[in-house]
Automatic annotation (TrEMBL):
<comment type="pathway">
    <text>Cofactor biosynthesis; (R)-pantothenate biosynthesis; (R)-pantothenate from (R)-pantoate and beta-alanine: step 1/1.</text>
</comment>
<feature type="binding site">
    <location>
        <position position="180"/>
    </location>
    <ligand>
        <name>ATP</name>
    </ligand>
</feature>
<dbReference type="GO" id="GO:0015940">
    <property type="term" value="P:pantothenate biosynthetic process"/>
</dbReference>
<feature type="binding site">
    <location>
        <begin position="34"/>
        <end position="41"/>
    </location>
    <ligand>
        <name>ATP</name>
    </ligand>
</feature>
<keyword id="KW-0963">Cytoplasm</keyword>
<protein>
    <recommendedName>
        <fullName>Pantothenate synthetase</fullName>
        <ecNumber>6.3.2.1</ecNumber>
    </recommendedName>
</protein>
<dbReference type="GO" id="GO:0005829">
    <property type="term" value="C:cytosol"/>
</dbReference>
<feature type="binding site">
    <location>
        <position position="65"/>
    </location>
    <ligand>
        <name>(R)-pantoate</name>
    </ligand>
</feature>
<dbReference type="InterPro" id="IPR003721">
    <property type="entry name" value="Pantoate_ligase"/>
</dbReference>
<feature type="active site" description="Proton donor">
    <location>
        <position position="41"/>
    </location>
</feature>
<dbReference type="InterPro" id="IPR042176">
    <property type="entry name" value="Pantoate_ligase_C"/>
</dbReference>
<dbReference type="GO" id="GO:0005524">
    <property type="term" value="F:ATP binding"/>
</dbReference>
<dbReference type="Pfam" id="PF02569">
    <property type="entry name" value="Pantoate_ligase"/>
</dbReference>
<keyword id="KW-0566">Pantothenate biosynthesis</keyword>
<keyword id="KW-0436">Ligase</keyword>
<dbReference type="InterPro" id="IPR004821">
    <property type="entry name" value="Cyt_trans-like"/>
</dbReference>
<feature type="binding site">
    <location>
        <begin position="188"/>
        <end position="191"/>
    </location>
    <ligand>
        <name>ATP</name>
    </ligand>
</feature>
Length: 287
């Protein structure tokens, strides 16, 4: 039987655990999650194992990053199953309750995520990225890892975390790990469990739109960015039951929208609602 990870419920216990690892000359990797783990999370853990001697997974459903009409109460909490799947993969799990992270209620001091956080996901979920960066900064300060792993599926989040670390001179390396997909292209997400079988088929519209945009991006044209955007949007026109939130092509270095005649590396971002479930996805492009 694989060894179960050490469960750390307090900040003090977590700091003691990390202090002992660093004292032994070991590198520490942190994988921040909200639980309900799937193979995408496990890819982060596996990459953490490649980069460090000790892997710590945090499991905390952070209330600060949920809006008043979002799914905080409904978000799946599966700590027992998560611990079982992490056996033999992670060395420790930091699983605090809300009162441990926010003992006086919501933090009076928070991180302001900046203008990029007001676009795309931030426009649809006001305050989300301030809450996300606040808890990430707390986790990085508590664990003080050598490296922290984030999923590329949440591309805007990964960009903002990297910017946070650079702007505040935090001594940690941030690595984004490629999106893990089902065999039919659906990006893995803890929210996929909300989907009915019919909704799951509709959810493939997101990855189909990304692929349509990719195909258009390599066709000879003067305005390939515009062509790729149009090709992606056309997939949603064909599926009125999938409610598009945004589809945008950005510069991965700035996360600002690209001009129609731009060249070089790009990232296409998409968000849509399938039934009551909101999904996001993205893919790299090159023009």
């Amino acid at each position: 039987m694989s060894a179960a990870p050490t469960v750390l419920e307090t900040i003090a216990a977590t700091r003691d655990f990390v202090r002992a690892a660093h004292a032994a000359g070991q590198r520490v990797a942190l994988v921040p999650t909200m639980g309900a783990l799937h193979d995408g999370h496990l890819a982060l853990v596996a990459r953490g194992r490649e980069l460090a001697d000790v892997v710590i997974v945090s499991i905390f459903v952070n209330p600060l990053q949920f809006g008043p009409n979002e799914d905080f109460e409904r978000y799946p909490r599966t700590l027992g199953a998560d611990l079982a799947v992490l056996a033999g993969r992670a060395d420790a799990v930091f699983a605090p309750v809300v009162a441990e992270m926010y003992p006086g209620g919501a933090s009076q001091t928070t991180v302001h995520a900046g203008p990029v956080a007001e676009r795309y996901e931030g426009a649809s979920r006001p305050g989300h990225f301030d809450g996300m960066l606040t808890v990430v900064s707390k986790l990085l300060n508590i664990v003080q890892p050598d490296v922290a792993l984030f999923g590329q599926k949440d591309a805007q989040q990964a960009f903002l975390v990297t910017q946070l670390v650079a702007d505040l001179n935090l001594p940690v390396v941030i690595e984004a790990v490629p999106t893990v997909r089902e065999s039919d292209g659906l990006a893995l997400s803890s929210r996929n469990r909300y989907l009915s079988s019919d909704e799951r088929m509709l959810a493939l519209t997101l990855s189909a739109a990304l692929e349509a945009a990719r195909q258009a991006s390599v066709m000879p044209a003067d305005d390939r960015v515009a062509a790729a955007r149009s090709a992606g949007l056309a997939r949603f026109d064909q599926q009125p039951d999938v409610r598009l939130d945004y589809l945008v092509i950005v510069d991965p270095a700035t996360f600002l929208p690209l001009e129609d005649d731009a060249t070089g590396d790009a990232l296409i971002l998409v968000a849509a609602r399938v039934g009551a479930t909101r999904l996001i996805d993205n893919a790299p492009l090159h023009f």
